[in-house]
Amino acid sequence: MNSQLTFLFSFLLSTLLINFSSAYQCFQTPDIAFLPLLEEDFSFLNTDSTFPNLRINADFSSIQKSPLKEYIEKDLLPPIIDYFQSALKVKRPLKGTIKVPASQVNLCNTPTPKIFHTEGVEADLSLLVTAKALVNSTCAAKAYACRRASSGRPVISKLILNTEFLPLPNGSYSIHERNVNLVMHEVLHALGFAEPSFQHYLDESGNKRVNHVRTIKVNGEERTILDVEPLTKRVRKHFGCSSIQGALLENDGGHGTKNYHFERRVFFNEIMSSGLIPDARLSELSLAVLEGSGWYQPDYSFAEPFFFGQGQGCEFYNGANVTTNTEEYCVEKASSMGCAPTGRGKGRCLSDYRSDRYKFFSPRLEYDCANIEAEKTASLKGLEAFGVKAESRCFSGTLSFEKKEQKSTGFCFKYQCQGQGLDTVLEVQIGNNKAFCTSQGPIKVEGLSGELNCPDPLAYCNTVGEKFCPKNCMGRGDCVNNKCVCKHGFAGPDCSMMMSDKSSIISEINVLTTFNKN
Ligand SMILES: [Zn+2]
Q: Which residues contact 186 (CB under 8 A, 6 or more apart)?
C-alpha cells in the first residue's frame, strides 16, 4: 500500500477512534422561541386524504467555503434529508414559506440568511447548518429547535457540526457511514426528539400531552420515562415485558445528554442512544417517538432492525438481578476482545459514562468488520474478511495458527444462512475453508487450533445475522432481496453516496483498486 495513503488512513482512524468511555458530551443550547409562531395547514387532519411528505430545507450559507463544506452540502446532508422526507409525513404542513421579519437580524444565534427576509424558505423544517471547530469540546455535533409552529413542531432548527469530529471520508465508506449516523441522530433531535420538545407533544386529538414525561421508581431508582404511543407499546413488545410504563431516558451526562436520549444500558446501539456506535440502528423505536409527538406519521418500513435486549424481559429492562453474562453485557477485563452485541464488529469489554456501569464489548471503527481498514487489527490475517462488500460479521472463539491455547477473541468472517427453521445451518467462511454451525457451541476448524463458538444458527440468522437494506436505501432506491438497488446517480450499500461525485466520495472498491495499483 502506498505509504502516503497508509498515513492518511492511520491519521483518519486515529482522529476517529476517540475512547468510547469518554466520548461525546454535548451541552445543548436551550430552546429559543421568541418569534411569532408559524401558521399551519390543519385541513389534512379532518379528511381522509393522506398527509403530505415532510419537506426539509438545509441552509449552508454560514459555512466557509472548503472541501469540508462541499462534503457537508453535497454528500452528507442530502441522503439524510432524502431519508426523512421519504420516511415521514407531516400532519400539519406549513402554509406559505418560512419567513423572518427584517428586524430579526439573527436567527438561532447566527446572522439570518437573506432568503428568510425575502421570498422565504419553502419547507416544513429548515435546518440552519453550521460547521466550526469546537476546540477542547467533547461534543461532536448538536442540534436544537429555535422556532416552532403553532402545534409546537420545530420549524427552524440549528445544526452545529464540530469539524474536529467530522473527518472527510476520502473514499472510506465507513467514515461516511459514521458521519451519516452522527448527523441523523442530530436531525432526530432537530425534529423533536429532545427534552425541550417533549412538552409540546400532542395526543391523537391534537391536545397537548400531559404526564407523558414523568419520574417513576425503576429498580429502586428515580428514573425519567417517555410514555407516548405507539412508543410504549413497541418498547414492551421489543423487550418482552408488558409492565413497561415508557421508554427509559438517559439519566447520565449533563444538560443535553440526560433526558435527550434513550438509556444506553438498554437501548445500546439504537441511534438515539448514540449515533457514534458503528452499526447504530435507526429503529422503529425512534420512529415511534416521532409518531408519539403527534406531528409526524412515520413509514415503519424505514426502520432498521434492532436486536439489543430483544425478548430479555422485565428484569433486564429494569436492571434488576441482571446477570452480567447475558449476551448483551460482558464481565471480562478491558484487555480482552469479543464480539460487540451489534454483531458487526469486535470490541473491548468497557463501560461508558451513560451505561450505568454495565460493560459491553464496545464496537469501534478500528475493529468493525465493515471497515476495510480494520484488517490491520485481525488476529487471523488472511482468513478474516473486512469491508462493507464482504458483509462479514463477528464470530468469537479461540482459533489460532499457533498450537498453544489462546484467549477467546473475535474474528470477522463471511457467512451464509442455509435452510429454514430448525434445519437452519450457519455456514462460516474461514479463508478457503467452511465451518458449519448446526447448533450452539464450540466446533473445530480444519487447519487451525482452538475452536469457533457457534451461535445458535436459527436465532442468529433471524437477528444479527439477518441481512437487510440499511436505512431502507435512504428513499433513494429499492430494497431487493435485502440489498439496495440504488436509483440512478446514487451508490453505496445504503445509497447514501453519489455516483458522480469523485471529489469526496468514491466507492471503497475504487480505493482498493487505487491501493493495489500503488
Ligand atoms: Zn444527542
A: 141, 142, 143, 159, 275
The pTM score is 0.90
Q: 257 CA distance to ligand 1 centroid (A)?
A: 6
Residues 510 and 367 grouped into a single domain: no
Query: Which alpha helices (H) appear in 199-319, and where do they start and end?
Result: 231-239, 264-267, 284-292, 313-318
Handedness of CA 483, 487, 492, 495 (dihedral sign): negative
pLDDT digits (tens, 9 = 90+) for 14-40: 333 333 333 455 665 555 545 566 778
- Residue 467, domain member (yes or no): no
In a domain, 130, yes or no: yes
Among 289, 314, 339, where does a domain finish?
A: 314
Q: What is the mean pLDDT of the chain?
A: 88
The answer as to whether 470 is a domain residue is no
* 388 and 264 within one domain: no
189 C-alpha to ligand 1 centroid (Å): 7
Q: Give the distance (Å) from ligand 1 centre to CA of residue 401.
A: 43
Q: Which domain holds residue 496?
A: 475-517
Contacts with 279 (C-beta within 8 Å, 6 or more apart), sequence order: 269, 340, 342, 343, 344, 345, 363, 368, 370
In a domain, 198, yes or no: no
- The count of domains in the chain is 4
Query: How many angstroms separate the CA atoms of 105 and 113, rounded?
Result: 9
- The alpha carbon of 499 and the centre of ligand 1 are apart by a number of angstroms equal to 30
Cell triple for 137: 469540546
CA of 518 to the centre of ligand 1 (A): 41
396: Cα separation from own chain's centroid: 24
